[in-house]
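Lab notebook, design round three. We kept the backbone fixed and only want residue identities now. Task for the bench partner: fill in a sequence for the structure below.
Input structure tokens:
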């Protein structure tokens, strides 16, 4: 019930936001904006250069949403092949006395080494603004094709039924499920 209520609230908020001319998150058939960010290792990266084949891109804009982002990647472990591309965008605000370097070092503690180069981070909402993402605790997830075009987008929790559009788009784009690749079976 909570998930469907959240989806209804999102639909209403999206309609209101779009009608007000605020925010323009990437939509299906649009290219993923080519924002430049710094990964948690401190290296500058272009978001589009991290898309190598069909890719799951998950973005958060609130520092309290780390667990909700992790839930998307845990769901990915169950839903898609382990070798499927995954990219994180962490575009949060922190108190003025917290440096980029400190925030990045704390993030490294939570990001497995395998995914650190695919985790872009800023502490001033710059990437969120460039991507047109609302600054709230609800994650954004995008299925992106090998050319950088958005196949599906959702502003929802991983367990929300609305998230199915992202998983379906990745499977249609050629990302195999975990059983096909010898990965763990689904739930």
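Proposed sequence:
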């Amino acid at each position: 019930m909570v998930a469907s209520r959240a989806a209804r609230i999102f639909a209403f908020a999206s309609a209101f936001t779009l009608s007000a001319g605020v925010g323009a998150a990437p939509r299906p058939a649009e290219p993923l904006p080519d924002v430049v960010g710094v990964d948690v290792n401190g290296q500058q990266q272009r978001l589009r250069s991290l898309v190598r084949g069909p890719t799951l891109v998950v973005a958060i804009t609130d520092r309290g949403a780390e667990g909700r982002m992790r839930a998307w990647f845990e769901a990915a472990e169950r839903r898609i092949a382990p070798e499927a591309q995954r990219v994180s965008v962490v575009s949060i605000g922190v108190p003025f006395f917290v440096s980029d370097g400190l925030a990045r070092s704390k993030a490294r503690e939570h990001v497995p080494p395998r995914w650190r180069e695919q985790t872009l981070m800023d502490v001033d909402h710059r990437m969120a603004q460039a991507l047109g993402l609302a600054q709230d605790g609800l994650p954004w997830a995008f299925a992106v094709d090998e050319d950088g075009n958005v196949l599906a987008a959702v502003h929802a929790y991983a367990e929300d039924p609305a998230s199915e559009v992202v998983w379906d788009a990745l499977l249609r784009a050629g990302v195999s499920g975990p059983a096909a690749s010898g990965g763990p079976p689904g739930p």
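Keep this in mind before ordering anything: Residues 81 and 178 are 4 Å apart (CA to CA).
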